[in-house]
Amino acid sequence: MRASTVSNPSSTAPWLGGVSIQIRQPRTGPLQARRRCRGLWPAILVATAWLVPSLFGQISVPPGGVTLTFDSRPPASEWATHVRPGVGTTYQSVDALDAGIQQVDQAIVTTQLPTTATVPPSTSSLGYRYNTAALYIQSRPTTSGTNAANVLKATLRNDIGSDATSLTISYDFGRTDPQAAGTDELPGWYVYYSLSGLPNTWVKIPELSGVDTAGRLEATIDLSSTPWPAGSLLYILWADDNDDGQTDTGYTMDNVTFTAVGGTVTPFLRIQTPTNGASFNQTVPISVTTAGAGLVGVGFTVDNVFYSSDLTAPYTAVLTGLSVGTHQLRAFGTNNQGQVVPAENNPITFTVTPNTGPSITITSPPPNWTVLVGTAITNLVTATDDVAVVAVEWYVDNELYYTRSNANWAFVWSDSLPGPHTIRAVAYDIAGLSASSEVTVIVTNPPAEGFTILVPNGSEWRYYAQGQAPPADAGGNQWNTSPFYDFAGVPGWSNGIASLGGGNNWPTPGAGGQPADAYYPARTQIDIGPANPRYSAVYFQKEFVIEDDPSSYVGLVFRLLVDDGAVVYLNGWPVMTNNMTITNWPVPYGQLANAAEGSDGLVYREHLMPASDPAWPMLGLQPGPNIVAVEVHQSSLTSSDLNFDLMIWASTYSPPTVQIISPTNGQSLGGGCAGGANVAVQVSGSLYVTNVVVFVDGSPAGESGARNAQGIFTVNVTVPLGTHTLTAQGTDSFGAVSALSPPVSVTVLPNQPPVVAITAVYSGGVTSLVWGVGTALTNAISVSDPDGTITNLEFRINGAFHLSRTNNFTPVIVNDALAGTSVFQAVAWDNCGLIATSAPVTVTITNPPDVTLLVTNGSLWKYFNLGREPDADGLGRPWWDPNYDDSAWRAGLAELGGGDGDVAAPNTIPERTVIDTGPSTNRHRAIYFRREFTVAAPGFAQLIVNVLRDDGVLVYLNGQPIFTNNMPNVWPITYDTLAPAAAGDDGTVYVRGTAAAGVLLSGRNVLAVEVHQNSATSSDLSFDLMLWGQGAARPRLEIALVDHDGDPFTPLVVEVRWNAPGATLIESTDVTKPLSQWTPVPGATSPYRPPMLTPQKFYALRIP
User: Fold this and answer.
1) Domain 69-262 indexed as CATH 2.20.200
2) Comparing C-alpha atoms, which of 632, 644, 643 is closest to residue 580?
C-alpha cells in the first residue's frame, strides 16, 4: 500500500545527550510522496526508533492528508473485516442494515483482509478481501443465504497536531460482476463513522452510502460539534449487504484519501511531575507526567540514557530501579512533521534516597499487664516508615498468630493460657525491611481462695465433625448424656487441644512480604465441611474430675468461646445456650445459630449458675469423673469459620471484698455548697462483684451496678460540710455480700468563689485600650474555680448585660461598640452560686479625625422582615425610593439581626435589636432596612461606607446603589437572590467601601439596605452601617438618567446634579459659545430636572 503526504526539509537535530538524529525526506515531491501505509510519519528518525510512529499500527492522518494506494496487503490494525452472521438471514431494508450496524463494536472487527487474485471476483461466502493482482480492496459477490452483511473497518489516527473539526474521505469506486437491475436488495456499500467504535455510536455518511455507480466518491464529515481529539482514533465502517437467494454485485475501492482539518497548534512539551528537586525513596515507583500539544509521541531519558517512550497522550512514564543518588530526567516529543520538541523545562533533577526501614512500638497493652484468663487482650501499635508500612505480624511466644495488611494493625487475643506471655509485633515495609516491638503480659486464673478450676481453657477435647449428629453407641448411650458412651466404637471421633476450629485463613501466611489478613490459628484445626454447604454443627465432649466436695460449691462459672452458637451440657443436663433458640430436644443437627457471632469468636461469653438455681440438683455433680459436652452450630451453610473453647470454674464460698480507692483516707475536699459536696467515690471489687453501696456516716448514700474494665465502680454521693466517714459494701453474682470496706475519713471544706479577669483586649494581634469605631475587639477572659466548676459567665458593657454563656467562656468579641468610653466587665458564677466580678477594663472608642459622621453605628433603623420584598407604597414607589412611605415598618437600634445572641459560642455576637429571621429550615431570604438623615452642606470629596453584614448586602443612597458586598453580579437583585457564600467573618467585621459624594443631597437623605442570607437554613443574620463624609469636594457636575417612579414602563427622566453650594447652573443649546454667553437657569438647585421635550442643551456651573 502506498501513501502521499506533506514532507519536511532535511535537517540534523543534535539532542538526546549528543546523539545525532538525521531527518531524511521522502524520495518524491511534497504533495505526492509515496510511502507504505505502516510508515506513518513523513520523516524517518534514525537512531531513535523508540519514537517512530509506525508503532501506532493505525492509518496516520497528518497535516495535508494521506492517500493510500494498495500496493501491498494492509495490516489488520489499519484495515480489517468481519462477517455479520446470517445463515439465511439478510437485511432487506436500509433501516434494518442501519440498526444492524449499530450493534457492531469495532473491537470485534479484527480479521486481516483475505487475499485473492481473481479479477473479476468469483462468488464466495467471504466478503471483503485484498486483490493482489489489481491492488485494491474489493467485495466479493456472496453466495445466497450465507451472511447477513460483510463489514470493512479502517482505523485512523489524528496526527494533524490539533483537534480535527472535519474529515474528508474520497476514493475511486468501481463495480465488478454487475447483476441485473433490481437484483440487489441494497445496492452499493453503506458507510459509517464513530469516534469511539462502540455500539450505538455509528453515524452514517450519506454521500458514500447506497451508491451503485462507478466513479470518484467524496464526503466531508463535519466534526465541529464533537471534534476528533489530536492523537486519538476514528473508525470508518463499510457494510455490504448479502442478497437473499441470489448473488450480489461486487465493488472495489482504491486511491483512498483522508484529509483532516483543525486548528493550528504550536507544539510544546513540559514535564509536570516530578518537579525539580523532588526526592523519592528508592522503593517507590516515580510517576512521570507531561503536558503538551501538537505531539504524536514522547520519549524519556534518565541521565542521558533512553528509558522509555509513550505514543499516546498524555505521555507518561514510570521510573523504577534507579540507583540511590541524584538523577536528571529529560523528555523529548515529536510532532507530526518529525520535528523534535524538547521539554521546555529539561532537565528535571531529582534524588533517590535509600530506604531506611520501618519503626514500630506496641502501645497497648502496657508492659507486664496482668489480666484474668479469657480476657480479650487488644494489641495496638504505632508503626511508621519513610514510605509505608505494608504489613504487621503478631507473635505470641514466638508463634505467628495474626497478620494485618491494613493501617489499624490491631490484634485481639482471647484464648490466652495462664502464665506469662511475650507478645511481639513485627512491621514490614515495601522492600521487606522489618522492625519489632514486644511486651510481656501475665495471664492469671481466678483466685484460688474463691474458685476451683474444673475445666481450664486449652484443654484436650474429643470432637466429631462428620456432617451429622453423633450416633448412639452400640449400647444406646448418647454422646452428651452418658459417661459410658463408647467413643472408640463410634467411628469419626477425634481428639484435639482447644481452641478447636477451622476457617479464618488458617494457617497464617509466613513472615515477610505482604501477607493477607489472617486470624490467629486454632490450636487444633478441624474440617468444618466444604465452603458450601458447611457442616451445620460440630460436637465436642470432655471428661473432667472433681477432686473436692461439690456440695461446697456456691455456683459455677461457664466461659465459652464460640463461633457461632452453642449448647453446653453438664452430665447430660443443658446448662448454657449461646446464640441459639431451642424448641426441640435433642437439638436437630440442621438447626442453625440465630446469627453470626458478634465478636467472630474472639470474646468469651460468660454464664453464671448459682447453687440456688432450681436446676442445680439435675447437674449430678459428684467427686470423680463428670462429663461436659458442647454442640457448636453455624449461623449459615456458607459460614467462613468455626471456633470453640470452654472453661468451667466452681465458686467456693468466699465472701466478696470491696475497697474505697478514692477519695483517700484523711483527704480534704473543697467545693462544699450549703447542702454539702458531690463526691464521686471509686470502689474496687473482687471478681464477680456486681453491685456496690456507699455509706456516709453509716447511712446508705448511693449505689452503682456499673463496673468498668478495671473492676472499678463509681458511686456519686453527697457529703455534708465537715468531717465524715465513708464505707462501702458489695454483692456478687452468687448473692454473697461483702463486709464493710475499711473506713475512709474525708473533710468537706466550704466553697470558694470563682476567679475571673479580662486579661487582654486585642484585634489582629495588637493589644490596646484605644480603638477605632467598628473594630472587632476580642476580650481574652481568664475564669476558673478553685474547688468547683464555672456554670455561667456574663459580659457587661457599661454595667449593661451584653451576653451570657454556660460554656466556651473565652474569648468574647465586641464588634459594635459606640464611640466614647466603654467599661467592660466579666461576671462568673460557680456551681454553688457564688459570684465573682472582674476588675473593670475601660476602652476608648474613637471616630476617625478626618471624616464627618453622617450615620453612626448603633443608630435607629426601620426594618421589614415579613419574608418577602416590601410592596410599593400607595404612590407606586419602590422600597428603596427616598420618598417611600415606610411608616408601617418596625424600628430598632443597630446592630439588628437574629440567631447570634442565644446560641453557643463562638457565634455569640448579640444584637441590640433581635428580629425574626424566619424559621430555621426556611429563613427569610432577605431583610430590608431604611434610615433617614440630614446633611446641611454635602461638600465632600467622597463617602465612606462601613457595613456590618451577615451574609450579603446591597446599599442604596437616595435611590441609587452605592455599595455591595458578597452579592452575585446579576441584576435585578430580588428577594430570592442568595448571597454566593456565607460571610467569612460571620458578621463580626465591618467591610468598607467608598461611594461618589454626588449622590448625597443637601437636606434630607435616605439610606436603604437589603441584607441577604446565603442559604435557606442560614444560622443567623446581622446588620449595622456607618456612613462618613470625607474631604472637601471639588466642584462636580453630572447628568444622569433617573427612575423617578419605580415603574419599568414609564420613561426615565434626565437629572442634573452638582455639589458646589452657591454655584449657578448655566445652559446653552450651542456648546461652542463662550461660557460668558451661556444663560443662567432660573431658580435651579441640585438636583435639577430639565423640562422634557426640550431642544438639545448643554450645562455648566458658574462658581462665584
Assistant:
1) no
2) 632
> Of 3.10.100, 2.60.40, 2.60.120, 2.40.50, which CATH number belongs to 451-515+522-652?
2.60.120
Helix (H) or strand (E) segment spanning residue 99: helix 94-101
Q: Is 930:1007 a contact under the CB 8 Å cutoff?
A: yes
Host H or E run for residue 95? helix 94-101
Q: Is-contact 38 52, C-beta < 8 A?
A: no
How far is the CA of 117 from the CAs of 143, 214, 249, 468, 727, in angstroms? 19, 21, 18, 74, 113
| Domain covering 851-1033 assigned CATH 3.40.50.920 in the classification | no
For the domain spanning 658-744, the CATH number is 2.60.40
Transcribe 768-835 into DSSP letters: -SEEETT--EEEEEEEE-SSS-EEEEEEEETTEEEEEESS----EEE--PPSEEEEEEEEEEETT--E
Indicate the SS3 state at residue 382. Answer: strand
Strands 359-364 vs 369-372: parallel, antiparallel or unpaired: unpaired
Q: What is the pLDDT of residue 513?
A: 41
Beta strands in 936-1052 (DSSP E): 940-950, 952-957, 960-965, 990-996, 1003-1012, 1021-1032, 1037-1042
- Angle 246-247-248 from CA coordinates, rounded to 5°: 125
The answer to whether 69 and 2 have CB atoms below 8 angstroms apart is yes
* Superfamily of structural domain 359-444: Immunoglobulins (2.60.40.10)
pLDDT value at residue 266: 74
Give which of 655, 650, 561, 549 is closest to 608, Cα–Cα: 650
Burial per residue of 587-606, b for 16 or more beta-carbon CB atoms within 10 angstroms, e otherwise: beeebbbeebbebebbbbbe
**268-353: CATH superfamily:** Immunoglobulins (2.60.40.10)
Kindly report the average pLDDT of the chain as a whole number: 85
| Domain 755-835 -> CATH class | mainly beta
Alpha-carbon distance of 395 to 399, in angstroms, equals 5
CATH 2.60.40.10 maps onto the chain at 268-353, 359-444, 755-835
CA atoms within 13 A on the CB side of 32: 2
Q: HEC string of 469-534?
A: CCCCCCCCCCCCCCCCCCCCCCCCEEEEECCEEEECCCCCCCCCCCCCCECCCCCEECCCCCCCCC
What are the grid coordinates assigned to 442, written together?
501475665
Contact 174, 126 (CB under 8 A): no
188: left (phi over 0), alpha (psi -120 to 50) or beta: left
Q: Show the cell assigned to 901.
A: 445572641
SS (H, E, C) 324-341: CEEEEEEEEEECCCCCEE
pLDDT tens, residue by residue, 417-465: 999 999 999 999 988 899 999 999 999 999 888 899 999 999 999 999 9
What's the CA gap between 1101 and 1082, in Å, rounded? 13
Q: CATH 2.60.120.260 in the chain: give the residue spans.
A: 851-1033
Give the chain's end-to-end CA distance (angstroms, integer).
95
Q: Which residue pairs from 914-920 have beta carbons closer than 8 angstroms and sit at least 24 positions apart in sequence? A: 915/863, 915/865, 915/890, 916/865, 917/865, 917/1013, 917/1018, 917/1020, 917/1021, 918/865, 918/867, 920/1017, 920/1019
- Residues 332 and 340: their CA atoms lie apart, in Å, by 7
Low-confidence ranges of the chain (pLDDT < 70): 1-56, 85-90, 120-126, 141-147, 178-184, 242-247, 264-265, 504-521, 900-909, 1032-1034, 1044-1049, 1093-1094
For the CA atoms of the chain, what is the radius of gyration? Answer: 47
Our separate counts of H helices and E strands in the chain read: 1, 83
Question: Which residues, 6 or more positions from 392, have their beta carbon under 8 angstroms from its beta carbon?
Answer: 360, 381, 383, 403, 404, 409, 425, 426, 427, 428
Helix, strand, coil share (%) of the chain residues, nearest 5 = 5, 50, 50
